[in-house]
Design brief:
single chain, alpha/beta, FAD/NAD(P)-binding domain, five-stranded parallel β-sheet, 26 strands, about 25% helix
């Protein structure tokens, strides 16, 4: 049996490890366009800040592949799939045949159509090579503009600030972390970052990135920078663009695989094309809270999906248990925050709230018919796992509802 996995991150490596556990004789091949052993993208900001080395962001040791008898094709880009003849075509002209194929290609940085975005000194922060480039450019820079106030943008901002740069974050929407937190939680995080010294601009977009020659023509001064829709200009030597991601679905173009924002899969991680599976950021699964099909680009879900894909590829038939698609945690300076499930309260739901912004403390629970649907904790995230379990298992909270926001709430409260 020939197992081929396109992608070398959480889902792909977990699938390989699972396959080898149940099939000691089959051939396993991992194809990746990156030259590195598997590393954690979540730790790239720590690497950028100098808090971790390249070695310490690896989540699979260098001997993982040899120990599991996995053949690697690193630095090789898969460009096409022939689903009829079961072959993967590589950019260098080679082909790799498969009996079972897993697409775990993840996602790529979305590059907005901003004039001048191809100028030098402009980076994304999606992979290790991006981080290496930013780190090198930061040595020659004094000011940086981060485009995008989501998790990646803010983490990049904080890392670059820790290196001694003047940092400005520009978010076109009216709040930071708009996809993960509500207005009150975002305000606490924003105030804390600004108290540290990071400037944050919201409700304003990037009109143009001006290189040195344009900057000189416009302002008769040397330098380069960013022009905002409002007319404000920000001088800088470095720009980091963190405006979201897009699932890497390009390989499916000629396969007949069903694709929406990501690849559609069933509860066995199978696509609609025989012998082709998908897992991780590229796959669409059903969210346990909303019941809707969508992307769930978070690390824990990718690990579970990779394991389930591996099991089903070797014939150990297992259904993928629905996971919570929205689950994010972060800590800037000394204010931890976590959001799970719904974060905006629908009209047919109720919310329970404690809001003490002067203490950097905020807790919100969203319920429908006494079933917990979502939560946001800022400042104190202890026992978040208890609430996550209630959300996932859809446990009625009627009997202990009044205790939910107490700091002492835990499993003992549920049992009693």
């Amino acid at each position: 049996m020939q197992y081929v996995i396109i992608g070398n991150s959480a889902a792909g490596t977990q699938a390989a490890e699972t396959i080898r556990k149940y099939d000691s004789a089959g051939n396993i091949v991992i194809i990746s366009d990156e030259p590195h052993a598997a590393y954690s993208r979540c730790l790239l900001p720590d690497y950028l800040a100098g808090e971790r080395s390249e070695k310490t962001i690896l989540f699979k040791s260098a001997n993982f592949y040899g120990r599991n008898n996995v053949a690697t094709m690193f630095g090789k880009k898969a460009v096409d799939i022939d689903s009829e003849n079961q072959k993967v075509y590589l950019g260098d002209g080679h082909t790799v045949s498969y009996d079972k194929l897993l697409i775990a290609t993840g996602s790529s940085a979305f590059v907005p159509p901003i004039k001048g975005i191809d100028e030098s000194g402009i980076f994304n922060l999606r992979n290790l090579d991006d981080a290496v480039g930013i780190k090198e450019a930061a040595k020659k820079a004094r000011r940086v503009v981060v485009v995008g106030g989501g998790f990646v943008g803010l983490e990049a901002a904080y890392s670059l600030y820790s290196l001694g740069l003047e940092v400005t974050v520009v978010e076109r929407l009216s709040q930071i972390v708009p996809g993960q937190f509500d207005v009150k939680a975002a305000a606490i995080l924003r105030n804390d970052m600004q108290a540290e010294g990071i400037r944050i601009i919201t409700g304003d977009g990037i009109k143009e990135i001006a290189g040195p020659s344009l900057w000189n023509r416009l302002f008769n001064k040397t330098g380069k920078g960013v022009l905002l829709d409002s007319g404000e200009r920000l001088k800088c030597e470095l720009v980091v663009v963190a405006t979201g991601t897009r699932a890497n679905v390009g390989l499916t173009d000629k396969t007949g695989i069903k694709v929406n924002r990501g690849i559609e899969i069933n509860e066995y991680m199978e696509t609609n094309v025989p012998n082709i599976y998908a897992a991780g950021d590229v796959a669409e699964t059903v969210d346990v809270v909303s019941g809707e099909l969508g992307l769930s680009p978070i690390w824990p879900n990718a690990i579970v999906q990779g394991r389930m894909a591996g099991l089903n590829m070797v014939g150990q038939t297992r259904k993928y248990s629905k996971m919570i698609g929205m689950q994010n945690s972060v800590e800037f300076r000394n204010v931890p925050a976590i959001a799970i499930g719904l974060t905006r309260t629908p009209d047919d739901c109720e919310e329970m709230v404690i809001h003490r912004p002067h203490l950097n403390y905020y807790r919100k629970l969203i319920l429908k018919d006494d079933i917990l649907k979502g939560m946001i904790f800022v400042g104190d995230i202890r026992r978040a796992g208890v609430y996550a379990a209630l959300i996932k298992k859809k446990v009625p909270v009627t009997k202990f509802k009044q205790q939910l926001l107490k700091e002492s709430f835990g499993y003992s409260s549920i049992i009693s």
